[in-house]
Structures are given as C-alpha cells and as structure tokens.
Write a structure and sequence with these properties.
By secondary structure, the chain is of the alpha+beta class. It has helices at residues 9-19, 36-64, 79-90, 109-122, 124-143, 146-158, 289-325, 348-380, 383-419, 430-438, 447-460, 466-482, 488-513, 517-555, 561-569, 571-590, 592-602, 607-610, 613-621; strands at residues 67-69, 74-76, 162-163, 182-185, 191-201, 211-219, 229-235, 237-239, 245-248, 251-256, 267-272, 279-283, 327-330, 341-343. Helix content is 59%, strand content 11%. The strands form four sheets. The chain has a five-stranded mixed β-barrel. A two-stranded antiparallel sheet has the order 1-2. The protein binds flavin-adenine dinucleotide.
Length: 622
C-alpha cells in the first residue's frame, strides 16, 4: 500500500484497542459475530481505498468542482469521484454500520467512525455524500412507512441511491422554525410539497441513480415555529414495485453555490413542486419533524466532528512530512560550530508547531471515538452503564462538533505556517485543507449554536446537571487511574481545572435562576472552548497513563537519552515516546491557557451584553 499521508494509523489503533478496548463490544449479543481481526481487516481495507482511490480524487475534485447545467438543470460531479464511489460501494462501506436486516454489515459505531476518519481525511467533499446518505437511510429505516422502506432501503444501504438532508431555506438558517416549505395532504395519504430549499449538499448529482430527500415542511394549517414542522421522504425518482426507477418527481435543482472549499460537493438550491406535483411521504407523525431531527442530530454532528478531526489529521501529517524534508537554516544545536544545513523540523519553533498540532489531533481522535463508543454502549449495555453512556454522549456532542471544527481551521492554518510560502500555494495540499475545513464550523448547526446547546440544554437546563456529573465522574476515574503512572503535577492541574469549572457552573446557574440568559449566551462560546480544553486534558492524562508505562517497559525511562535512543531503533518506542511528549506538551503548556479562559467566563464583565447595534454601525458611519 502507498504510504499513508493522512492519518497516524498506529494512533488510531491505540485509541481503539489500547484505550477504549473495543474488542469488549464483541461480548454483547449485537456484535457477537465480529472479532478483533475483522475490525482490523476492515480498517486496513478502508485505509487502502482511502489512500489509493479517494485521496487522489480530492485534488481533482477541487480543481474541477461540481458543475451545473442550466439547460438540463443537471449537476455533474468530478469524474474521479464517480470512480472512487464505485470502489467504495463495492467494498460495502456505505452500509458498514447499518442494520443487517436491510443489507448493512452491523459493525459497531466505533469501528464505523474510525473507518470514516480515513475517508474524511482523504476527501471531505467526496465523503459527505456518504454521511448524508447514511443519515437519510437511518431516517427512512426508523420513520418511513413500511412500503417506502421496502422500496428504498436496500438501494440506499448498498450506495446505489443517495440521500440528503433538506432543512435550510433563504430565511430559515439557524432558525429552522422559520421555514416556509408547505405540505398539503392528499386523499391517498401522501402530501404535495411546495417550497425552496437552499444550501443542500448533494441535492442534485450524477453520483447516484436516485436521490432520497428527507424534507422539513409545514403541513397546511399547522402552527408556526418548530412545533408545526413535519418531515417527508421526497424521492427524486419514484421506485417501481420491482425496485427499478420509476417516473420523476416534481423537483429541480435551480443552481449550485460557488464556494471557498469542498468544491467537488454540489451545494444546491432545490425547488419543490413548481408544477404542483411534488409528492412526499410523511415520516413519523404529523408535527414530529423536529423531534425526529433531534434524534438524528447526535449522529450528524458527530459526523461533522469527525470531518474536523480528519482534516486536521491530514494537515498535521502533511506538515510533519514536509518539515522533515525541507532544509532551511542551521539547527540551533549546531550553532557555535560549523553551521550544518538542517531540515526545518530541527528548529524549536517548527517543533512547537508540530507538537501543538499533534497534541490537538490526538486529543480530538480519542474524544471523538469515545463519543462513538458511548453510542455503542448506550445501545448494547443495559442499566446504569447505558444511562451514563447516553449522558456522556449528549454532553460530548457539542464539544466534539464545535471543538474539532474550530481546531480544524486553526490546525490547517498552522500547517500552512509550517510549509512557509509554499503552503499558501496551490501546488501543495494544505491550502485546500484550510479552505475545505472552514465550512465545518458553519453547517450542521453553527458553532455558536453548538455552544448554546452545550451551556443550556446539556448543562444548565439538564435535570440535576446529570450530564456534567457523568463527565466529571469519568474524569475523576481517570485521575485515580493515573496516580502512580503520571507526574502528580499533571494530575493536580486537571483536578484544579475541574474545581474551577464547578465554580463557573455555580456562577452561570445564578444567572439562570435570575433569568439573565443574555449573560449566559454571551459566555457560551468561551465556556464551550473551556470544556473542549478540559476534555482534551482528560484525554491526554488518560493517554499518558497508558503510554508512559509502555515506554518505561521498552526504554527503561520516559524522558532523557534512553527513550530517545530507543525511539531511533524501535518504531513502538518511537510511537510511545511521541505520545508521551504530545501529552506532556498539552498538559504542561497548552492547558495553561484554560485557566485564563475560564477566568474570563467567571468575570462579571458585561461589555458584550451592554453593546447594541449602534455600537457597531456607529464606527462605520463615523
Ligand atoms: C457548503 C454548505 C453545505 C450545506 N449543506 C446543507 C445541507 O445539506 N442541508 C441543509 O439543510 N443545510 C445545509 N447548509 C446550510 C447550513 O446548515 C446553514 O448555513 C447554517 O445552518 C447556518 O445558517 P445561515 O447560513 O442562514 O446563517 P445564520 O443563521 O444567518 O447565522 C449567521 C450567524 O449568526 C449566528 N446566529 C444565528 N442565530 C443565532 C442565535 N439564535 N443565537 C446566536 N447566534 C446566532 C450564527 O451562529 C452565525 O454566526 C449548508 C451550508 C453550506 C454553506
């Protein structure tokens, strides 16, 4: 296989098998047909196809982009995407995590997510077609009428037919409740849909024979706002009873966006019912659209979190490789003697950038896979374990979605910095990664909306603040396990950080009790960043408590000359030494920023809430 320029597969295996111990899942009935070997071979195959088939298509996709033909109203995706998708589907990856009853493989969510990390790292523009399809498939499986399940599900799970998510309208972005798309019930129980949707990823394309659109709309006469929303299955083509494609439904693509990144992915404006004949099938009950979407949200948000992690991982891997090969200046250790040209990786400032990127990527990977693992436990284990897993998952979702995607933008920017001027040029891959990463903080609920979800629904309005108590409990378990294996300074720093978070939650609860929501919202994003840092410190402490003893076993010491010498000869020593340094860097330097940040949340400063429109426009008018 070609060298993997995208993901540290050894680190992925570390998270899956040494930290999370996913093999344990095979003891549950649901996953009893699998074993570790099957997980490993699935990951190997994913890595191979991602690196050899999908990754080469990514750059081509960026250069060619998706194209719209106004005459036919058809959309063409880059040819390379079609070839890669055929291979992806042949390998059975679309249905990997889905129900065997409908043709899926039924693998644990944790393994499915790890597989998807490879593909997102290879190309976000290509792989979002898959995540949208999987999301739509789950909606059809859980909520569509039986007749539609029989007609559409197997084709969707095999990847022959595609799927989308149609929420956004010109006046309904973050405020989904403002949507205007209308549904009128027909005598046969179907609905006629009319309205405009915008920004619909893969809304029209030639990757799939048919496209199944879950569409949010309001049934005529239903109340305004989110309460009156229902969800409909609207196929591009109807399916014949024998499973072949039938007649075309009344919906067209009226254009696609010209974007900063993910150019191979068509972002479509769709018009439903221009001829009064767009038929939709109700999923779930009337006015249950938002309830149903909420059930799907964790999945969709974890998807985007993974996109952030994967792009950051790819940017870091590229930067590390580049830094080892680019010779510029002399290494400081050579100063004084005869200057020896050095690869830039020898310069302390470049090492700092790389270690910062590495420590962010590793923490994101561990936290995101922990969230996926919590999904598996929630569905497979019973009792208290499942209850806690659900609470932890709910709490981690906005942290992973907003945290990973904010970091993706920062990590890709740092990768450009490592490359110097070359990084800014299109001949090198990192500028595309930066452009592709920016959308991630915007779609699937902007990161501002994620932060409000975290601080309100998941924290302050959560009965008994249960989610947060589970999160803390798990951190304290890690602190206990780390004792003896890890420097106590790191342990007490994380302990202190949790106490400060407790104080902050108490302060925010007072704002809540006083009904001063504006003060809470003004602090939501900063608090979300604090939670991300605390969660990442937790991950690094956990990793350190596993890696330090392993390094000790191999090299006899965890710092100094011995592990450095061992790392030069033994790839396993190099891996654990790298992990130890990454965690020490995070806990010993990066995490210091947490304390300043959380003080800013606790501060009584009211400048944000006191600011009003004219404060901003006044400056422009002066
Ligand atoms: C490339 C791309 C692909 C997309 N794919 C899809 C798709 O497949 N399906 C789909 O349905 N949609 C899709 N979208 C739409 C995307 O989800 C929306 O753009 C997003 O929800 C934000 O809505 P908006 O753009 O209208 O921004 P706005 O809602 O106008 O937000 C603008 C700013 O105001 C902030 N803001 C808004 N309301 C509040 C509030 N109440 N409190 C605090 N801050 C607030 C936001 O955080 C943001 O910073 C896609 C968009 C793009 C660009």
């Amino acid at each position: 296989m070609a060298a993997n320029p995208l993901i540290d597969s050894r680190d992925m295996r570390f998270v899956l098998f040494e930290a999370l111990q996913v093999d344990r899942l095979t003891s549950f009935e649901t996953f009893s047909m699998f074993d570790r070997e099957m997980f490993e071979s699935t990951l190997d195959l994913a890595e191979k196809i991602a690196v050899e088939r999908v990754y080469p298509a990514n750059r081509a996709g960026d250069r060619t982009g998706a194209r719209y033909d106004p005459a036919t109203k058809n959309v063409t995706v880059p040819e390379e995407f079609k070839q890669a998708m055929a291979i992806f589907n042949e390998a059975g990856f679309t249905g990997l995590g889905n129900d065997p009853e409908w043709g899926g493989t039924g693998m644990p969510e944790t393994v499915y997510r790890a597989v998807m990390e490879y593909f997102f790292a290879a190309s976000v523009a290509f792989t979002i077609n898959v995540s949208l399809l999987v999301g739509a498939t789950n909606l059809v499986k859980n909520f569509a009428p039986d007749e539609q399940k029989k007609l559409y599900l197997e084709k969707m799970m095999s990847g022959a037919w595609g799927g989308t998510m149609c929420l956004t309208e010109p006046d309904a972005g973050s405020d989904v409740g403002a949507l205007k798309t209308k549904a009128v019930k027909q005598a046969d129980g179907t609905y006629l849909i009319t309205g405009q949707k915008i920004f619909i990823s893969a809304g029209e394309n030639d990757l799939y024979e048919d496209i199944i659109h879950p569409v949010l709309a309001r049934i005529e006469g239903d109340p305004p706002g989110t309460k009156g929303i229902s969800i409909f299955l609207v196929p591009k083509y109807f399916a014949n009873p024998d499973g072949t494609l039938g007649t075309r439904n009344d919906l067209v693509c009226t254009g696609i966006e010209h974007k900063m990144g993910i150019k191979g992915s068509p972002t479509c404006a769709l018009s439903f019912g221009d001829n009064g004949a767009c038929v939709g099938y109700l999923m779930g009950g009337e006015r249950e659209g938002m309830k149903i979407m909420f059930q799907m949200m964790n999945e969709a948000r974890l998807d985007v979190a993974q996109q952030g992690l994967a792009v950051a991982s790819s940017a870091y891997s590229h930067a590390a490789t580049y830094a080892k090969n680019r010779v510029q200046g002399a290494a400081p250790s050579e100063k004084g003697g005869k200057p020896v040209p050095a690869a830039i990786v020898k310069h302390p400032d470049v090492k700092r950038m790389l270690l910062w990127m590495k420590s962010q990527v590793e923490a994101m990977r561990m936290l995101t896979l922990l969230a996926a693992y919590s999904t598996d436990i929630m569905h497979s284990a019973g009792g208290e374990e499942a209850k806690e897993a659900r609470a932890l998952l709910d709490f981690l979702i906005p942290i992973c979605k907003a945290g990973n995607t904010d970091l993706a933008w920062l990590v890709t920017a740092e990768a450009i910095q490592v490359y110097g001027g070359y990084g800014y040029c299109a001949d090198y891959p990192v500028e595309q990664l930066a452009r592709d990463s920016k959308i991630l903080s915007l779609y699937e609920g902007t990161n501002g909306i994620q932060s409000m979800d975290l601080v309100m629904r998941k924290l302050l309005m959560n009965p008994g603040i249960y989610n947060y108590s589970v999160f803390k409990k798990r951190i304290f378990e890690t602190l206990e396990r780390a004792r003896g294996a890890v420097d106590t300074a790191y342990i007490s720093e994380v302990d202190r950080a949790v106490r400060m978070m407790d104080e902050t939650v108490a302060i925010l609860s007072k704002y809540r009790d006083a009904g001063d929501m504006e003060e809470i919202f003004a602090r939501a994003t900063t608090l979300q960043q604090c939670f991300r840092m605390l969660a990442h410190a937790w991950m690094h402490l956990w990793a350190l408590s596993l890696c330090a003893p392993r390094l000790m076993e191999i090299a006899g010491e965890i710092s100094g000359e011995k592990p450095a010498a061992a790392a030069k000869e033994n790839p396993e020593a190099a891996f654990y030494y790298g992990k130890v340094l990454s965690s020490k860097y995070y806990l010993g330097t990066e995490f210091k920023k947490y304390f300043g940040l959380i003080e800013s949340v606790m501060s009584g400063e009211r400048a944000v809430t006191e600011a009003f429109d004219d404060v901003f426009t006044g400056v422009l008018e002066a």
